[in-house]
Amino acid sequence: MASGPGCPGGTLGVLGKILRYFRLDFTDAPFGVAAGYGSVLFMSDHRAAVRHHTLRTGIVEFDNGTGSIVSVPCTIRDVSGTGARLQLNSSLWVAEQFTLVFSSGLRKDCRVAWRKGRLIGSAFADGYASADEQAVMMTADEQSRHRLGIGARVRAARETRGYTEGQLAERIGVTAAFVAQAETGEADIPLYQLMHIADLLMVSLDGLVAGPAPGPEDADAA
To answer: Where are the alpha helices (DSSP H) in 85-130?
Structure first.
């Protein structure tokens, strides 16, 4: 590599400086540049830590058709009250019906909703995880997003049917303040109340709890 004219130290000198920057050697860098680069690194480390916390390991178990149980390690990329998005750690085939084993020991029977390479969208066979199960298998952030999604769908259904918060509250036996909190994701709606709301607003329980079924494109963004 030839040294460029007018470039102190030539191209090799420039590359040397770049390498020093990536080793956090800011001896030759202005204070503002060093501080700014350090901030970027800090934010990257923070995002990586959050990501690591969200991505959990699990096991996919299924009968291979001969009576033998096959166990495939996986990464649980995202969890909701109705299913999970999984990334298999190998290219092994997985049956349409399987059991997802969480690191806590919780076992959930699942069915495959969609596939894309090693990515699998799974739906819980029993339809909806209980509050206790959600607390075990979902992160606090996932639980918050789940509540927010349910609340938004309840509000949309309520407004479509022409009910006010007070009218809906009166019909399901709660306060208007609770409905307002539930619709903004600040309060959990018990399953029996969700069933009552679904019947009253003439929508499906699945529609309130899960909304549109997630597809492979959603997994790519996870």
So the answer is: none
Q: Give pLDDT tens digits for 58-117.
A: 999 999 888 899 999 999 988 878 888 899 988 888 999 999 999 889 999 999 988 888
pTM above 0.70?
no
Separation CA 220–CA 198 (nearest Å): 31
- Token pair belonging to 134: 């959600």
The domain spans of the chain are 10-53, 56-124, 139-211
- 3-class DSSP assignment, residue 65: coil
Residue showing tokens 């549109």: 212
- Tokens encoding 34: 């060093």
- Please count the CA atoms within 13 angstroms of the CA of 115 that sit on its side-chain side: 11
d(C-alpha 71, C-alpha 30), whole Å: 54
Architecture of domain 56-124: Beta Barrel (2.40)
